[in-house]
Amino acid sequence: MGFPFGQFTAPVQSIAIGFLQQADQRRYGGLWSELENNFTRGRDHYPQALTNAYNLLLNYKAAPLPPQKRRENDHNEYVSGSECRPNGNPRPRTDGKMS
Questions:
Q1: Calpha distance 2→25 (Å, rounded)
Q2: Are 56 and 27 in contact (CB under 8 A)?
Q3: How far, CA to CA in Å, does 53 sit from each of 3, 28, 33, 88?
């Protein structure tokens, strides 16, 4: 006597979701958040099988990161590996020579 397909749906989907949970959170954390938010809104987009989960990760495009602000004095901290004074001139070394 064979089992109806519906009895295998939950274990197969559990494996697919476990596969997604083990994915790199830095790369795919946004995908996981999207899946959770969609489910909360009544849209179940969780993969039904392992192949679907793999394809979801393979084709996922993360949202671009916003540009980071640059500090104003970044260019005065180091020049060619030597320390500089706030005016841009190199600091003298301990042996009296200039860097």
A1: 39
A2: no
A3: 24, 12, 15, 54
Q: Report if residue 92 sits inside a domain.
A: no
Residue 38 is assigned to a structural domain of this protein: yes
- The continuous run of DSSP H or E covering 82 comes out as strand 82-83
Domain count, the chain: 1
- Residue-number span of the structural domain to which 40 is assigned: 9-59
Query: From the first residue on, what is the mean pLDDT of each consecutive set of 10 residues in the chain (99 residues)?
Result: 58 92 92 94 94 95 82 55 64 65
Verdict on whether the full-model pTM lies above 0.85: no
Give domain status of residue 51, yes or no. Answer: yes
